[in-house]
Amino acid sequence: MELTFASLSEISDAVKSKKVSAKEVTAHFQSRIQALNPKLNAFTSLNQDALKDAEAIDARIAKGENVGALAGVPFGIKEMLCTKGLTTTAGSKMLSNFVPPYDATVVARLKQAGVVVMGKLNQDEFAMGSSNETSFHGNVKNPWDLERVPGGSSGGSAAAQSARLVAGTIGTDTGGSIRQPASFCGIVGVKPTYGRVSRYGIIAFASSLDQAGPMVSSVQDAALTMEAICGHDPMDSTTSQKAVPQWSKNISTNIKGMKIGVIKEYMKGGLDADVQKTFDDSLETLKKMGAEIVEVSVSMTEFAVPIYYLVATSEASSNLARYDGVRFGYRSEFKNLSSIDLEDFYGKTRGEGFGNEVKRRIMLGTYCLSSGYYDAFYNKAGQVRRLLTNQYLAAFKQCDAIVSPVTTSPAFKIGELVNDPLTMYLNDIFTTSTNLAGLPGMSVPFGMSKAGLPIGIQLTASHFEEQKMLNVAAALESVSPVKGKNPHVI
Amino acid sequence: MIDKKTIEHIAKLARLHITEAEAAQYSAQLEKVLHNFEQIAKVDTAGVEPLITPTEIEAYWRDDEAKKDFTAEEMTANAPSRTGNLFKVPPVV
Asked: Where does the Amidase domain start and stop, copy by copy (chain A) (predicted)?
């Protein structure tokens, strides 16, 4: 077994049957991180106890204990998730010295499944960005072309997984932050239905949109990881009490007779030629496999980007109010003052602690929630959000899953869009509506650009219908031209 | 629409010190982004209840039990400044 490219279950089975020890697996990936991370800047910190944690798993296996479905599998965790004793900065100077006293539920569940946490992965500051250029730790590079962005905000997770620095990673998705970098880096990324995954211990960005999910190398690995992290959590009252299906056992590439929707409002053109070709190829492939392509209308998607930025920035401005320099995080220097104005204390701390993109979004969100504008912006966005969601639910009465591009172009060059927030925001045009409607969404690699960059296809399904989405993705994956291709950095 | 005075007002509400250069940059960018937002004004939403939580989540309440999951030491460990188990701040009056 070539450990670098092994699936999660291959690693876990080998560890459980003692063909390889968890310690050997951990050491193997540690050496990969050491060799390749300086080129990619994907990891921001490493778990110094990873080998010890692996030994503990080996010891439990030696005693005959059941160590879980992901025994000894090395995972990288996005900086957005709290990890007990391991720095959790959310990519911000504001939290640069924050060491949580507890694990996020997602992390606790992964550990329960036997995962070895290898370290924390770089991201855009507070997950705000589509290029991983706003991190306090510097930008991450795309393993397929080091001059290009890996996508954002989960760019560290995407790059680490793509270059196989770990066997699996976790990202978070507020408006496409799992799917867009997965597409840019040629991996599989899934955002489950809103409410499937506990947000407890995940640094809050926009609470009604955020969901964590797997960023891994195959649809099967994604299903296995979701089984480990999904499910009701008493610590997050927005988690669903619905049972977690055994997606990994039920994956089928037989999509004969399935109805696959195409949103007619998305067919206006304006796509990069390589993205358009990948999308057209996916439709042809699905037809050949016996699926029926049906046109559906979700006219409100026209407004998805404005609604998204209204909701996300408003919720962010409220969530980020907790960073006041009193109980945790960065505090501005006030040593020489005997008495200061309290508002100055907060203002200076926040002005110095937050980066440019975060401040821009706090300003935008505060404006939208301020007196006189609340009804015109936030409330109106909530109303259009309901209309959009209703249209999606009606569309899913006509089809099992919807297929679309993930982004308008493959990975762009570092620095290309950083000073043009509006164009950068419009990059999220295909991904934001699934978060607004709470739908599950994923990206599966299905094309290569002429320049040799991977391109993903997005699939969505109705609430809690992840299986249908995974099956269509598995069907595309089985004939994907990206299969077997590896980034240049490997 | 977004003049310097508005930017200063918003920054004050957000408890956010911003520099002159930032104020100028944000006012131009916010103007552009808000203009884009105005598209939604044309959507007829009469009588539509705003959507906040996107999926139907069954109501769930935890038992109201006092728990001691963390010590005071753990809870104050990340404080920028502290005295014993108290958060220390500069004098504010």
From this structure: 24-470
